[in-house]
Request: fold
Amino acid sequence: MNAPRVLIADLPAHAGRQVELAGWLYNIRSKGSIRFLQLRDGSGRVQGVAVKDECDPESFAALPTLKMEASLLVRGEVRADDRAPSGVELGVHAVTVVHNPVDDYPIAKKEHGIDFLLEHRHLWLRSTRQEAMLRVRARTATSMRRFFDDRGFVHVDTPILTGSIGESAGTLFSLPYFDLGDAHLAQTGQLYLEAACAALGRVYNFGPTFRAEKSKTRRHLTEFWMLEAEVAFLDNRGNLDLQEELVCAVAADVVANCEPELRTLGRDLEPLHAVQPPFPRLDYGDAVARLQAAGSSIAWGQDLGADDETTLSQAHQQPVFVVNYPRAVKAFYMKRNPDDARTVLCADLLAPEGYGEIVGGSQREDDHQLLSARIREARLPEEAYRWYLDLRRFGSVVHSGFGIGLERTVAWLTGTHHVRESAPFPRTMGRIYP
Ligand code: 4AD
Ligand code: MG
Reply:
């Protein structure tokens, strides 16, 4: 009889019928003359129960030879079962072995160290927890894009190979580019988005960005995905409102669509339900004073350290904005604060529960003279920024934007300590394999 091929996720709709599953065996055990097969196919997990009298004899005889991660076609009857997490189990009638590994699967049930797991990332992805992470990551990316699509932003792709510098010269990956000297992997698409925003008004990009940062923290990758938005005629305050709306929408959407995955990951959902506007807005100077009172060695004029961010983000239930940093610790393009020339109109958004910065944004310097002075002051190659300065020569307007890091957002939403688990193949200072 020809049984229809069905995804594990769709099994409950086929209760009482014959189906075929295509998937992998992640565990098998015997109890008397019964074999219990744990099967997964990417859409879900289900238990197959093979009883000698009900199973084709050749298939039944092959079961003891199966290794972990054997790929199989399994035919049988879907049976409703209240005790099963998926609500069903499969009474196995026949098994076709697609591929039975010769070797033992390296990832066992026992605890492995993080280095071992990262070295086997290509296989580790198959585990329940990592599968859930990948799903939450995919949903987070979708909900970020939808937020902007629903509001009339135009998705504009910005280049990865760039001649000019984005954030800081110290953390650029360079590569030889024909006869034109060095090209750099994009640290940000922002400067190109500013050009697109003068054409389309409200734009965003979403893609990989690169930082040759010699940082071995729980928050740093050398390759990460960032969604950046840029809006014409928007000031810094409006920029904060937009970020707040985005982060609330993404948190709510991910909780609404990924509750089973978040539970698999052991995420306490309470703090995510609590993410509601308005987020506290803390002036940089006040943040420094507060940190000093809490024992930090930070002085006015310094960037917040990793511990400082943790301290501030543990103090609030909501994400918190730290606004108007000293201009010396921020990128050259940020708008000078008219009320205090030592600072710029910008904000970092710190996620709660100790996660720290997930968004960085600012109002942009729209004055041609001030911007070119900042480029010189930062000792950047002026020639490379000629096109960027043109944007201030032809219809310059107040405009603002920000970038939200995907891996850091996913680490926060899933309650995962280190960003390396929220990237499918994380790139860090010490790892480029697999
Ligand atoms: O604060 P950043 O450096 O801001 C920019 O690149 C601006 N050009 C964005 C803009 O205004 N259009 O980076 C933005 C976000 C951070 O808040 C963080 O979430 C993430 O990108 N990020 C990193 N994520 C992982 N590893 C790293 N090394 C990261 N550096 C930044
Ligand atoms: Mg930043």
Observations:
- The longest helix spans residues 128-150.
